[in-house]
């Protein structure tokens, strides 16, 4: 540890710099004088005081879409792994996996690893086990733990619980190579059975059967036991203190959320006296988007705006860490979920550190809450100490930690009392103190160190995170190095902490490390799900929004190797569960288990709902309800969704054995039930149907008998017959179909206008196939932009204004989990104005409203409606819509005249702009495609970008390419570090006619670009051009640009191609008419010889030619 000694001048300057910003409020709060005493660093305590950092909880379907990121955008998935688990000081040191029974655990279900007693445990269909495996590739020291919410129906005794756990743990070890480190033998958020806990621990330690090797047994016997994952203070503290056999059985005391100890202080004793780990095994992360949180205008208590702090914010999360340690010696904090990889609108939405909800686009939001956690993990060595106590894990120091924040969950620090935590190396060589100020008051602290292993008073690095200064990028003050701070002549350091900020001071030398000066990735555009007919790529030019036949047998899946890098590919189906249990693409279950499935004796994969109560029974559940899964984009507007359905159970079971399709699903308080989906068509194999609006049946019938108004002749009522069910949603009109026949049309006077597609069933095996979501001609298929109400600026380095509010508004954080980003903006009187400038044809306002607001609407400076009404609306749906503007740039102002307007989100409606016609004969940059499958843009040394990562079968689409009268050849700028490949030139679809094939050779490197050329035939006019790439396995080539070469244009009368019209051409004409020759030695010979443009070559053309040569006419009639 070497630090510069600052001059007195620099000391004074540094202190002045740190405290130069005046407090937002001058109310004084108590200062704190901190003594960091090396004698209080308990190096002999290897479990209770070692700082273990933070953990990821994967459970209740929160990771439902995460493996789709791995499949569709593996580079983004690897980036996520590195940010969470990578580096010298990883943020996350633990993955906790919740096991379930395919029924709802709040947001959704966890896949059962054993659905019946005789099934071999399958961990590949459980996203949590895959995540843990990949995370351990990044950090081999990562810990993994499991517990259960509810068990499958067959698990009805403790013996069977043990069997289920053991088989699952060994399946994970044999599949992925890691042994689970910790198990809670109890049930999540229930009081522990202490007798069973001891029995379970003994069985783990002594089990000697069923192992493949001595090493496998030894690892299994070393698994440690956790209790109890209760909500609030653990009920078992006193038992562990008084019962030595229980302490011997249990390694970790864990409970959720509450930061406090019991009244006897038992958890402090367990940590300090008995050296037991104490965890906050389910902790509060951040309930918002920190990027836009500072746009709130809340007063807490008196100054407007809370920066990155305030209710449910990242500073509150940080204070929970401090208070959890101070009050109950928690040294490990697990976040549920750390990664929100399920569709918005579900239960417990918007409480994560990372949002990863659009696997088709690769969009990921890394929240500023991660930076808060880095203020802890980046300034200490966190983790688990080894048996020899030589790992050097830092200890938390109770005597140098304190908080006056009130509450237990949430923890409220807006009273301005001190809040800090000290971590120190066990050899006393270094320390870091983290200060959190979640208040409007400036705080001042002093630190003095004694009995440390170093001499003197080294300068401390000072790191700060707070909201951006006005006009600066949102993250410009994240993890900002403020310089070094020196002690005064008495060895005292003085630290000033600004309002709503976190500061870490440390003896470590970190300021020159690149990662400390590299911001988290900033989220990019959230591309709407709009694919080709195979459900792959991004294609806005066809009529398909999404399609899936659930057969992934031709798809591959990345292999994550050591260090978290992609080292190869594997079978998509095998890696995601196997042919009987494949995690399907883009589905997010809210109840039940929907998986791709290959029936015995068939080669046709289907989507199957896998829970059948008549065969396996049903276990318990958090939210009771029938199976349903969502797929798609919450910005979808107008579409027709259809799917084929079939049954395996030859009974309608009193109406409980059905298949259904839903439309415009968003979520909300009933998201886990079918009545949370606004429009549903239910179908029974006997021909029965029922159409539901907001959970209520508004029409029903039977297509066999004709009840309900529609009869379909020769309808097959076999239970295993396939039928197609569909819903078409166009503005406020909803039409239901069975086998292509319209059975009911409904007009909704209070419509829900946007949302995903649902597939639903009863708790019986039910099959779905050939899902198709189609656009509706003449109607916008989706929002092109959707903004949170606090999105008042973009995320660029030089922020650009977005939503502009004026007049009386309340902009609040800390709202419902069913409000977008848990924020709302509410008008507080007449004259409140919202303005937005956009490109499109309309604008919608979404949010929970009572319909009382009357609005004045101005478009481009002109009032278009002096008293527009609003609709009563549920969470996440429309209260006001403005449509029908001419496509283009518009500025819309909404003024509240009376009533109250609540804004949760603002969405832009746009037609799909017609593709601009491009000349085939001008150079077209490869990256300027209109659609693609499989490729990625890459940097090109020749300038701009190239298309790369091209594999066999990938393609790019260029719309409306004008070939005029024809092209004769294709020229492309390409490179290949492998064996190259081929570029097929196809017209108007990926299966369209091939007009040319260009071979690309090996060029010696990805940046070694060369020109290649090939002939082209049979193309003229305007077409969509598909470049399909073919070749061997692996990456084939990079494409920088391309263009076509024009086909030579015929000169009328020039029959030999010498650019002149003379007697030789006249002689050729005569020979042709006499039959001596069959054609002319020139391209477009017919056009050249048809001198009078009548479409035929005959004596009239010969006579015209003679007149031209004799000078009777001066030019030929059709000469060009």
The CATH class label of the largest domain is Alpha Beta
**Could you give a short account of the major beta sheet?**
8 strands, parallel, barrel
Please report the number of helical segments: 17
**What is the CA-atom radius of gyration, in angstroms?**
34 Å
* Strand tally: 65
Terminal residue distance: 84 Å
Beta strand %: 25-35%
Structural class computed from helices and strand pairing: alpha+beta
Q: Which range best describes the helical content: under 10%, 10-25%, 25-40%, 40-55%, 55-70% or over 70%? A: 10-25%
- Give the second-level CATH assignment, the architecture of the largest domain: Alpha-Beta Barrel
Number of domains: 5
What's the overall geometry? globular
Q: If strands are numbered along the chain, what order do they take across the biggest sheet?
A: 2-3-4-5-6-7-8-9
CATH superfamily of the largest domain: Glycosidases
Give unreliable regions as ranges.
1-30
Average pLDDT reading: 94
CATH topology assignment of the largest domain: TIM Barrel
């Amino acid at each position: 540890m070497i630090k510069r000694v600052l001059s007195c001048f620099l000391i004074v300057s540094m202190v002045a710099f740190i405290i130069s910003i005046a407090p937002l409020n001058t109310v004084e709060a108590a200062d704190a004088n901190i003594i960091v005493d090396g004698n209080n660093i308990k190096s002999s305590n290897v479990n209770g005081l070692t700082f273990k950092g933070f953990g990821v909880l994967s459970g209740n379907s929160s990771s439902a879409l995460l493996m789709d990121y791995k499949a569709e955008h593996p580079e983004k998935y690897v980036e996520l792994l590195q940010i969470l688990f990578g580096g010298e000081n990883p943020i996350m040191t633990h993955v906790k996996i919740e096991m379930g029974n395919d029924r709802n655990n709040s947001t959704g279900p966890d896949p059962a690893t054993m659905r019946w007693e005789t099934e071999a445990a399958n961990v590949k269909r459980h996203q949590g086990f895959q995540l843990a495996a990949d995370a351990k590739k990044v950090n081999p020291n990562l810990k993994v733990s499991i517990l259960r919410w509810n068990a499958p129906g067959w698990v009805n005794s403790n013996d069977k619980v043990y069997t289920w756990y053991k088989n699952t743990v060994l399946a994970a070890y044999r599949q992925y190579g890691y042994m689970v480190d910790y198990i809670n033998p109890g049930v999540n958020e229930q009081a522990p059975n202490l007798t069973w806990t001891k029995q379970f621990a003994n069985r783990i330690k002594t089990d000697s059967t069923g192992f493949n090797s001595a090493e496998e047994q030894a690892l299994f016997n070393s698994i440690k036991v956790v209790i109890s994952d209760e909500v609030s203070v653990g009920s078992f503290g006193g038992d562990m203190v008084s019962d030595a056999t229980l302490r011997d059985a249990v390694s970790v005391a864990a409970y959720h959320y509450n930061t406090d100890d019991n009244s006897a202080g038992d958890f402090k004793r367990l940590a300090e006296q008995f050296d037991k780990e104490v965890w906050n095994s389910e902790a509060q992360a951040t309930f918002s988007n920190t990027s836009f949180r500072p746009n709130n205008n809340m007063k807490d208590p008196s100054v407007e705006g809370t920066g990155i702090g305030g209710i449910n914010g990242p500073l509150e999360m940080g204070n929970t860490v401090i208070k959890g340690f101070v009050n109950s010696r928690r040294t490990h904090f697990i976040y549920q979920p750390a990664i929100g990889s399920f569709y918005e609108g579900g239960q417990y939405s918007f409480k994560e550190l990372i949002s990863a909800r659009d696997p088709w686009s690769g969009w990921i939001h890394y929240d500023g809450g991660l930076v808060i956690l880095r203020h802890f993990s980046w300034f200490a060595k966190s983790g688990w100490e080894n048996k020899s106590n030589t790992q050097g894990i830092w200890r938390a120091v109770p005597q140098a930690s304190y908080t006056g924040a009130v509450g237990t969950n949430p923890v409220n620090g807006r009273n301005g009392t001190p809040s800090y935590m000290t971590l120190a190396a066990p050899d006393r060589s270094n320390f870091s103190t983290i200060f959190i100020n979640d208040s409007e008051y400036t705080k001042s602290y002093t630190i003095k160190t004694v009995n440390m292993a170093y001499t003197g008073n080294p300068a401390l690095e000072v790191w700060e995170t707070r909201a951006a200064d006005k006009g600066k990028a949102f993250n410009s003050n994240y993890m900002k190095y403020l310089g070094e701070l020196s002690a005064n002549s008495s060895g005292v350091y003085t630290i000033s902490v600004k309002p709503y900020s976190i500061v870490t001071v440390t003896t470590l030398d970190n300021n020159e490390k690149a990662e400390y000066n590299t911001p988290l990735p900033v989220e990019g555009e959230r591309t709407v799900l709009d694919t080709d007919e195979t459900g792959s790529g991004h294609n806005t030019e066809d009529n398909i929004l999404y399609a899936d036949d659930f057969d992934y047998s031709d798809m591959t899946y990345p292999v994550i190797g050591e260090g978290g890098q992609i080292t190869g590919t594997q079978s998509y189906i095998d890696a995601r569960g196997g042919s009987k249990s494949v995690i399907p693409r883009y589905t997010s279950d809210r109840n039940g288990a929907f998986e791709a499935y290959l029936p015995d004796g068939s080669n046709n994969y289907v989507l199957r709902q896998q829970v059948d109560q008549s065969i396996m029974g049903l276990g318990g559940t958090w939210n009771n309800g029938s199976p349903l899964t969502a797929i798609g984009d919450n910005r979808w507007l107008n579409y027709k969704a259809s799917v084929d359905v079939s049954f395996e159970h030859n009974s309608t079971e009193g109406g409980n054995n059905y298949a259904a399709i839903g439309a415009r699903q968003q979520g909300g308080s009933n998201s886990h039930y079918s009545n949370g989906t606004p429009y549903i068509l239910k179908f029974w194999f006997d021909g029965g149907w029922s159409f539901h609006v907001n959970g209520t049946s508004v029409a029903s019938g039977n297509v066999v008998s004709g009840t309900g108004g529609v009869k379909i002749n020769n309808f097959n009522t076999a239970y295993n017959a396939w039928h197609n069910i569909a819903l078409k949603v166009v503005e406020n009109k909803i039409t239901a179909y069975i086998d292509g026949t319209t059975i009911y049309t409904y007009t909704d006077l209070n419509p829900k206008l946007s949302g995903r597609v649902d597939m639903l069933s009863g708790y019986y095996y039910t099959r779905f196939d050939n899902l198709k979501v189609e656009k509706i001609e003449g109607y916008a298929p989706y929002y092109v932009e959707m903004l949170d109400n606090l999105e008042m600026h973009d995320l660029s380095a030089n922020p650009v204004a977005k939503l502009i509010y004026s007049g009386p508004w309340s902009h609040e954080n800390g709202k419902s989990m069913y409000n977008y980003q848990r924020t709302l903006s509410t008008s507080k009187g007449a004259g409140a104005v919202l303005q937005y400038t956009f490109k499109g044809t309309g604008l919608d306002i979404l949010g929970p409203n009572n319909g009382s607001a009357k609005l004045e609407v101005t478009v481009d400076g002109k009032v278009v409606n002096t008293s527009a009404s609003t609709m009563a609306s549920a969470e996440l749906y429309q209260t006001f819509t403005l449509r029908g503007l001419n496509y283009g740039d518009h500025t819309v102002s909404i003024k509240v005249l009376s009533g109250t307007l609540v804004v949760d989100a603002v969405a832009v409606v746009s037609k799909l702009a017609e593709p601009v016609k491009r000349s085939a004969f001008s150079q077209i940059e490869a990256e300027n495609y209109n659609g693609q499958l499989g490729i990625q843009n890459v940097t090109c040394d020749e300038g701009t970008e190239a298309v790369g990562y091209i594999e066999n079968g990938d393609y790019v689409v260029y719309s409306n390419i004008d070939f005029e009268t024809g092209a004769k050849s294709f020229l492309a700028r390409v490179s290949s570090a492998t064996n190259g490949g081929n570029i097929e030139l196809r017209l108007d679809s990926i299966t369209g006619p091939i007009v040319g094939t260009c071979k690309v050779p090996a060029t010696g490197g990805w940046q070694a670009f060369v020109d290649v050329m090939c002939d082209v035939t049979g193309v003229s006019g305007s077409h969509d051009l598909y470049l399909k790439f073919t070749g061997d396995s692996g990456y084939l080539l990079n494409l920088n640009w391309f263009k076509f070469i024009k086909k030579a244009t015929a000169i009328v009368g020039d029959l030999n191609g010498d650019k002149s019209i003379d007697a030789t051409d006249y002689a050729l004409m005569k020979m042709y008419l006499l039959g001596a020759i069959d054609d002319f030695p020139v391209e477009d010979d017919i056009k050249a010889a048809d001198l009078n443009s009548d479409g035929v070559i005959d004596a009239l053309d010969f006579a015209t030619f003679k007149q031209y040569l004799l000078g009777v006419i001066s030019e030929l009639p059709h000469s060009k």
